[in-house]
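Subject: Protein record for review, amino acid sequence with backbone structure tokens
Why sent: The fold of this protein is of interest and is recorded here as tokens.
Enclosed: The protein record, placed directly beneath this head.
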Amino acid sequence: MTLRLKDFGRERKTILRHKKLSFALCAALVFAALLIYAAAAFGATKIAGAGSTNRMLKGIPQQGIELGKPDAPVTMVEIVEPQCPFCAQWARNELPGVISRYIRAGKIRIEYRGLSFIGPDSDGLLTLAEAAGEQNKLWNVVELEYANQGAEDSGYATHAFLQAVAEAVPGLDVTKAFAQASSSKVTAQIQQAKALSQQYGINKTPSLLIGKSGDEQNLTVMANTSGQGLYDSIDAALAGNPVPAKSSGLPAWAIVLLIAAGTVALSVAISVAVRLSRRSPAPPAAG
């Protein structure tokens, strides 16, 4: 009887030790999971301005590259580059006023025409925005990209950054957006933007075009793109009056041609001057 009690006591202690070890192991696993979660949260890309951007756009119709009511009488087209700091400045300082005064009221609609020429970061930013347009979320992505813009071609537009931007957009299917970023439709949209910019001689971003909706062949390149001048130009378009147009200036090829011609002319002039200076003086006339 005494031996049985001793055996029972030993078994009980063994069971207790196993329970304590199991509890300690579980606690360690939970703690490790919390550490991993905390590290991931700490290292996650934080996207600024998601709340204000989504509130600004909430309730306004989006259709592909368009923002605003489809039957708005006037269309404004923005030609931009996702890494362009001046485009980001326009998006922050001017677009909210245009939205509140004209787009939300159904007076005008705006189209996004994105270009990619600064560097590799632009490609990912632009294709994600265009792909989001397939879900009618382009403007949310574009404005968040500008609100979180990094230094030009610094490599900031990583997959993690783009995913964080996409995840900050309510209702966007992120997986689908990334799958569509390399689609032929997205490529075609970018090519159309490039063709439109060449058609109107656009040589800098941001540039704004404005005109009657549905008449893409007769748009005006706006001279005034900020402040009251911008509003006055939109009001003129709405009233059917001429909009102050930006001077087209010389196209890039013409500037290059002029520089080349000037260089050739200068070279010829120098060559003639050198030859003249090397000529022997004429002999004196006979007395």
